[in-house]
Design a protein that fits this description.
Structural class: alpha/beta
Bound molecules: 4'-deoxy-4'-aminopyridoxal-5'-phosphate
Radius of gyration: 21 Å
CATH superfamily of the largest domain: Type I PLP-dependent aspartate aminotransferase-like (Major domain)
CATH architecture of the largest domain: 3-Layer(aba) Sandwich
Largest sheet: 7 strands, mixed
Helix content: 25-40%
CATH class of the largest domain: Alpha Beta
CATH topology of the largest domain: Aspartate Aminotransferase, domain 2
Strand order of the largest sheet: 2-10-9-8-5-3-4
Length: about 350
């Protein structure tokens, strides 16, 4: 068996110890004689797995006790519709900060339910920065303000939590949740698809402040009604049980590592290795503003797109896969989520140096 360094933006690499434990427990979870994926979601065994996963997530993020943690299906694109359905209530308008492709997708979906007000946009600068907080034009009557804490495609990440007054702050944290400590109390709602830093796709995590419950539009499907799901312990419908089990193992892995402060430090070291290399040379281009550089997704461009295929082939030959940039922007993108070891980033930097020397 040989494993590669997987730089996929998602579904992404899962920590190897987690995969090993899942493999060992595949046929018989802790003497039950069944695989977790064969268990009733309402049975004692699975209920304990879900409760353990939730407790670990609450500990890792220090989630305030009154906040609800929901394990849902539908992914982040699903949440782009589900959030407005649940939070609009009698309000008509939502504020957005547009930092790139995923912000735009979120606004497109929300426009089906509400007036979309762009409070600030990075479009004019080619989405290479987070618009400065002083420039945001906030609507005090907005149902909420939506940000994308890490633009997975553009590689633009918030390195501050914006102060937004009374309007609830809602964040799509799909590609940076659990990569660093977080002050959950500053947010009204956080959502994230699992397939980057948490585990398999199919699981969506929602963390919501309790006063935001109870305002769902009548058209909201029950399975996506936060209030009903909170009352049902995320079991109004069958939750993505196996994904929740793997998420629990990932949470345990993070705790054993020292939690989010330790993870954040490792992520900082990994990203610095790559960015320091990019800063010290002129072959590759990396246009994102330094104070908005993502520690999770690092896009870079070769001087000539005709070299892209050669670069990717050479990387693959060295056991590094999924470095191709998103089709919308082209170039390369190294996604270096929690599960990417430092050795993977080191191997990439070594290869980049070697490639530039041969093609520069
Ligand atoms: N938001 C962000 C920030 C993402 O990175 C992604 C997936 N790449 C999505 C939303 C969409 O997630 P999904 O396909 O799971 O709905």
């Amino acid at each position: 068996m040989s494993r590669v360094f997987n730089f996929s933006p998602g579904p992404a690499a899962v920590p190897e110890p987690v995969l090993r434990q899942a493999a060992a427990e595949m046929l018989d979870w802790q003497g039950t004689g069944t695989s977790v994926m064969e268990m009733s979601h309402r049975g004692k065994a699975f209920m304990s797995i879900q409760a353990d996963a939730e407790a670990r997530l609450r500990r890792l993020l220090a989630v305030p006790a009154d906040y609800k943690v929901l394990f849902l299906q539908g992914g982040a694109i699903g949440e782009n519709a589900i959030v407005p359905m649940n939070l609009l209530g009698t309000r008509r308008s939502i504020d957005f900060v547009d930092t790139g492709e995923w912000s735009r997708r979120t606004m497109q979906e929300a426009a089906r339910y509400a007036h979309v007000h762009v409070a600030a946009s990075g479009a004019a600068g080619g989405y290479t920065a987070v618009p400065a907080r002083e420039t945001w034009q906030l609507d005090p009557d907005a149902a909420y303000l939506h940000i994308c804490s890490n633009e997975t495609i553009g590689g633009v990440q918030y390195h501050f939590t914006p102060e937004v007054g009374e309007v609830p702050l809602v964040a799509d944290m799909s590609s940076d949740i659990l990569s660093r400590p977080l002050d959950v109390a500053r947010y009204g709602l956080i959502y994230a698809g699992a397939q980057k830093n948490i585990g398999p796709s199919g699981l969506t995590i929602v963390i919501v402040r309790p006063d935001l419950l109870g305002h769902a539009l009548p058209i909201t499907p029950s399975a996506f009604n936060y209030t009903l799901q909170a009352e049902a312990g995320s079991m109004l419908n069958t939750p993505p049980t196996y994904a929740i089990y793997i998420a629990g193992l990932v949470f345990a892995w993070l705790e054993a590592l020292g939690g989010l402060p330790a993870m954040a430090e490792l992520n900082r070291v990994k990203a610095a290795l790559l960015y320091d290399h990019l800063d010290g040379q002129s072959f590759y281009r990396s246009p994102v503003a330094h104070d908005a550089r993502s520690l999770m997704n690092v896009p870079f461009w070769l001087p000539d797109a005709r070299l892209d295929a050669t670069f990717l082939q050479g990387a693959e030959a060295r056991g590094m896969v999924q470095l191709k940039g998103h089709r919308v922007v082209g170039g390369m993108r190294a996604s270096i989520y929690n599960a990417m070891p430092l050795a993977g980033v080191q191997a990439l930097v070594d290869y980049m140096k070697d490639f530039a020397a041969r093609h520069g």
